[in-house]
Amino acid sequence: MPIVGTGWELHIIRQNIQQRRGRIRTIGDYQIYHNGIPQTNLKGTAVEAKGPGDNNVAGNGRRVEAARYPLATQAGSHYLTIGYLISNDCDQTPKPGLELLQTRNRREILVHPGHGFLASVGCINLTSALASGNTDIPFVDSRDRVIAAITDLQTFAGGAFPHHNGQPIDNAWVVIDGEP
Hints:
By secondary structure, this protein is mostly beta strands.
């Protein structure tokens, strides 16, 4: 599913699978677009749970289906879009995050920082390139990439960006392609 070139789009193209001691993660490339124009410094690697994508069964530990999802500000106890904590300690909360909407039976599917092999049971972790399944997601890099995405989205949306967590964000999308 390609981007449509309208609004703010975080595009993920799933590329392959990495494994470590029986654990599996999905690796893809991500790029942020403003009305179809790629934003030079807002790209990298997206890490998700194993596949295939499945939005029918809640809590299944799989990645979401390849599709186009509207975004919302996240209002949770562990992740927030507005009011998150900036800490180098991956155990400190709330961490930054954005919520995907219209995921059918799946709930709390987020774009949020990762660490270690994978910090997700269906969510999306942003990071720099991961050479192999033996390469960990560096938390601070991942956190900074999620903050950069949130900050860019706030700037792009301007006054239309929600002032509270738990609100839909107009004209903002995550677009996911591929089922490796």
